[in-house]
Amino acid sequence: MSVDSIPVAVAPASRRLARRPARVALVLLMAAVLVACAPRNAFQFSSPNPEARVERVYVATARDLGDLGPSFGDERVEGLRYLHMDVSIPPTHQLGEIEWPKGTPDAATDFVVTDSHVYRGSNSMVRAMRQHSSGKETLVFVHGYNNTFSDAVYRFAQIRADFDFTGPGVLYSWPSAGDPRGYAYDRDSVLYSRDDFQQVLESLTAAPGERVLLLAHSMGAQLVMETLRQAALRGDRRVLDRISGVVLMAPDIDPDLFRRQAAAIGKLPQPFVIFVSRKDRVLSLSGLLFGRKPRLGVINGPEQLEGVEGVQVLDFTALGAENSGKGLGHAVPMTSPAAIRVLRGMIDEPRRETDGFGNFLKLRFD
Question: Exposed/middle/buried for 51, CB within 10 Å: 0-12, 13-18, 19+?
């Protein structure tokens, strides 16, 4: 098993969670219900600001474009829709933040949408994307549980801006309920979305030389693994061979299931990287719901990846300390300024022909 690292101790908070699972689960469930009753932020249109950075977010989605708010309990729609949205990042933007408008939207201080366009199909979108961005490798972002369409669009725009991605990029927005109470609904939506997501990957890799780099968060990691497994079982190696790498951030997957998925896929795309944080309170709750078993995004021992070859595990626990209250520690690589700076350095390292994944972040299970 190819997993490197430094020794890691289980956080005291994790031990407290283990001793009081029922009480913690009840408190977090009550908090989720209260949050669900509050209105969700939604993207708003505004005129552009000359000092703002505009990120064009291409989107493939199975959502109803006429109703992009929370959809807990709603019937899922059939078919994919393709569009782009120009998201303006304010000149006052801070690393890891999404500056939602608190009143009248202003591109000088807020994330806003300045333009959008719906395409007739995947071919039209891919053709437009290739003309707008150079390169044939597409970064594909798959969001996680409890995400509205607006959440996902703005998060991908923030990631592109903070990591200075300039190449082609597509958000795959699956029909999450966008509601904390919709955990079971979202798990079903992941299974429902496998065929659609494979169709998206096929459209992005149809031409010679086209490849995709997959970036998935939380329950979106489950969708990625299930889709790759499905392609392998169907004997569709063409799609698998066009994947230039996989990054799973805080994956909400049972480690036993992950091993089965990886075995079915066979040789995993390379590089294959998992980001973990042992202070992830969302995954701690998820583990309680599934028999007090730790999820893949909080692993702390080699036995949980036994038999899986070609996986690197990067521990972001320490880098999330500065914003541990933000997002319940479930999105550290995307929201922690310290983590973002480290990752940007790792991305830049290969350009200097050195090992971009410094040993100070790799996990060594002794």
Answer: exposed
Count of CB atoms within 10 A of residue 350's CB?
11
Nearest to 111, CA basis, from 210, 180, 42: 42
Query: Residue 169 forms beta bridges with which residues?
Result: 139
Cα 282–284–286 angle (5° rounding)? 70
Render pLDDT for 323-332 as a digit per residue (tens, 0 to 9).
544 667 889 9
Q: Residue by residue, what is the 3-state secondary structure of the chain? A: CCCCCECCCCCHHHHHHHHCHHHHHHHHHHHHHHHHHCCCCCCCECCCCCCCEEEEEEEEECCCCCCCCCCCCCCCCCCCEEEEEEEEECCCCCCCCCCCCCCCCCCCCCCEEEEEEEECCHHHHHHHHHHHCCCCEEEEEECCCCCCHHHHHHHHHHHHHHCCCCCCEEEEECCCCCCHHHHHHHHHHHHHCHHHHHHHHHHHCCCCCCEEEEEEECHHHHHHHHHHHHHHHCCCHHHHHCEEEEEEECCCCCHHHHHHHHHHHCCCCCCEEEEECCCCHHHHHHHHHCCCCCCHHHCCCHHHHCCCCCCEEEECCHHHHHHCCHHHHCCHHHHCHHHHHHHHHHHHHHHHCCCCCCCCCEECCC
234-279 residue pLDDT tens? 998 999 999 999 999 999 999 999 999 999 999 999 999 999 998 8
Domains of the chain (ranges, CATH numbers)? 12-352 (3.40.50.1820)
**pTM of structure:** 0.85
The pair of structure tokens assigned to 30 is: 């009550």
